[in-house]
Design a protein that fits this description.
With 567 residues, the chain is of the alpha/beta class. The protein has four domains: 3-213, no CATH class; 223-343, no CATH class; 394-469, 2-Layer Sandwich (Transcription Regulator spoIIAA); 475-550, Beta Barrel (OB fold (Dihydrolipoamide Acetyltransferase, E2P)). It has helices spanning 9-12, 30-45, 66-71, 90-107, 111-115, 129-136, 149-163, 168-180, 205-213, 221-229, 237-257, 260-266, 278-292, 294-301, 307-315, 321-343, 345-356, 361-368, 373-387, 406-419, 446-469, 515-520, 562-565, and strands spanning 3-8, 16-19, 53-63, 83-88, 121-124, 191-198, 394-399, 423-428, 475-483, 490-494, 506-509, 526-534, 539-546. Strands 1-6-3-4-2-5 form a six-stranded mixed beta sheet. Helix 4 crosses helix 7 (149-163).
């Protein structure tokens, strides 16, 4: 039989609460913490009838069996080591716990002496002994500890809330009384209750967790999917270890995707999500929608925000632990792919460019799937050129770095010939004191390093000549940088594909005696130029007209997020 009753926070003390692996970690933010404290304070200060109380949302639990207690090494000296598995309400329980920790520290109170109660204990299935310490002692950690950041920040937010009050010590006393009063006290401050919903030991907590939360806004597809991944299907040690491992890896992925630069790389519009791992599941849902067709997908899984959850729910119907393992490996494969893109300096900029040109990441992923690295690089270069036909690639090479052998030098040479970068810089390695490479072994002789650099320069020279010839007969907006003194109608400028100081320039011919041309060709202005000839590094062109880019209304459509721009 289910046990439904109202219990005061005072009644929740002297108990033990077990947070299973299918639960998300503590995630309450400043706004939610302040809202709770504001409500508690307003209630405590309000005029109340006898037995008035403030009621929190339900807490759903079930007693832990002896096997769960033993396997998770749950030990407590309170309540005869009886534990409750928290199915719903752990965010509120943890927040109240942190508030108690703060009040106990600041007021120097002892619940055992002052209230004949012990503060309840919370144990997380996914936390090591060291990680559990930041739950028990949140004041000792800071936000730099990855898995402690939400708990420690909550402690700081609580401190900040009390500090804002006119009389912090008095306010702390009011909140403490509010949390420790009982129904029988009938105190002026009132008392705080929760709806206690206790399930029988034999009831499946995962199914209850999913049913309770499927219509709840704070929970997302990913959190419901997590419950599916961590549902107990086989009672053996391997399956249980696998569940713990998935839960830990899940948290690691979420923590990584919360990184602002990674998130900016994957999302053009920096769309925020309560759980960023949802990005992976949304992508998997989109791929399935493309595979079976939009109409069939919508028919099977719906069009609301929980469609992806229904997709995975179907996958896991009558699933074995091997099915779970295989599906999780797919999730990891997506995550590992995106981390590889992010970590590869060339792919980072190429893919980042495509994403910010509105290329769907699902299309980029399909180019990557089942392709070699060289094939993928070629594919995304072609995609860039399809989005931006005149896109220009630039490379820089260092030859003769310690450890570079003939095979590595040959690979660099082949890479340059394959990539066909329009411009390239190359220089031999030189040994410099106070650098990490100074003491490296397998040094390459300066003569060999220079020879390899000369080879690359020769290859690049031919590529650049061909690149420059391709511009003959075309018109470009040229930024004028210098007027050649002593020459009639000659100026030096730069096209958009020429980097300052390192690439060639455009020599612009114009009629100095024609006022319109003479006025237009000024340093810092754009002019329209037709390219007539090309040398080894420079282009020569003829003035056509003034450029519309000089208009103050001109605005480039190509924009980058700061995280990408500054990478």
């Amino acid at each position: 039989m289910n046990d439904l009753r109202l219990k005061s926070i005072f009644d929740l003390l002297d108990k033990n609460y077990f947070i299973p692996s299918y639960q998300r970690g503590y995630r309450w933010e400043k706004r939610q913490i302040e809202d709770l404290l504001d409500d508690l304070y307003a209630f405590a200060k309000s005029k109340k009838d006898v037995e008035s109380f403030y009621c929190l949302q339900p807490v759903i639990l079930k007693p832990c069996d002896s096997k769960t207690i033993q396997e998770n090494h749950l030990n407590s000296n309170i309540d005869n080591n009886k534990w409750y598995e928290v199915i719903d309400g752990q965010q509120r329980l943890t927040t109240i716990y942190i508030i108690f920790k703060y009040l106990i520290n600041k007021e120097n109170v002892t619940l055992e002496d002052d209230f004949k109660k012990s503060l309840y204990k919370i144990s997380y299935q996914t936390k090591s002994d060291e990680e559990q310490r930041y739950i028990d002692y949140p004041e000792e950690y800071d936000e730099s500890t990855p898995n402690a950041c939400f708990v420690t920040q909550a402690y700081k937010d609580i401190d900040a809330w009390f500090a804002k009050s006119e009389a912090p010590k008095k306010t702390r006393g009011i909140i403490l009384n509010c949390l420790t009063n009982q129904k029988k006290d009938e105190a002026a401050e009132g008392y705080v209750q929760v709806i206690w919903y206790e399930l029988p030991e034999e009831q499946d907590p995962i199914k209850t967790f999913t049913r309770v939360n499927i219509g709840k806004i704070p929970l997302t597809n990913s959190e419901l999917i997590k419950a599916l991944f961590l549902q107990k299907r086989e009672k053996n040690e391997i399956a249980e270890v696998q569940q713990i491992q998935i839960s830990k890896e899940w948290d690691q992925i979420e923590y990584s995707l919360q990184d602002k630069s990674i998130w900016a790389f994957l999302n053009k519009d920096l769309i925020d999500m309560p759980a960023h791992i949802d990005f992976l599941f949304n992508l998997m849902g989109d791929l399935e929608k493309e595979r079976i067709g939009v109409e069939e997908f919508n028919k099977k899984y719906g069009t609301d925000s929980f469609a992806t959850f229904r997709l995975f729910n179907e996958k896991f119907t009558n699933a074995t632990q091997d099915t779970v393992k295989n599906e999780w490996e797919v999730v990891r494969e997506y995550y590992d792919t995106f981390m590889e893109w992010y970590s590869n300096s060339i792919w980072y900029h190429y893919i980042g460019f495509l994403i910010y040109c509105n290329k769907p990441i699902i299309d980029i992923y399909k180019l990557y799937k089942d392709a070699s690295k060289d094939e993928f690089l070629t594919s995304i270069e072609e995609e860039i050129k399809s989005v931006f036909p005149e896109a220009v690639l630039r490379t820089t090479f260092l030859t003769g770095f310690p450890g570079e052998d003939d095979f590595a030098a040959s690979n660099t040479k082949e890479f340059l010939m394959n990539i066909q970068s329009a411009w390239s810089g190359c220089f031999p390695y030189s040994r410099e004191e106070d650098t990490p490479a100074y003491d490296m072994k397998k040094r390459v002789s300066p003569k060999v390093a220079q020879k390899r650099a000369d080879t690359l320069c020769e290859i690049q020279s031919e590529i650049t000549k061909s690149f420059l010839k391709s511009h003959i007969g075309k018109e470009y907006d040229i930024l004028i940088e210098e007027i050649i003194e002593g020459e009639d109608g000659l100026a030096i400028g730069r096209a958009w594909f020429q980097a300052p100081d390192v690439d060639g320039s455009v020599v612009v011919r114009y009629e100095k005696d024609i006022p319109e041309q003479n006025d237009a060709v000024q340093c810092g202005r754009f002019v329209r130029v037709k390219i007539e000839t090309a040398s080894d590094v420079d282009l020569n062109g003829l003035f056509i007209c003034d450029s519309e880019k000089n208009s103050s209304s001109y605005d480039s459509e190509l924009k980058f997020a700061p995280e990408i721009q500054n990478k």
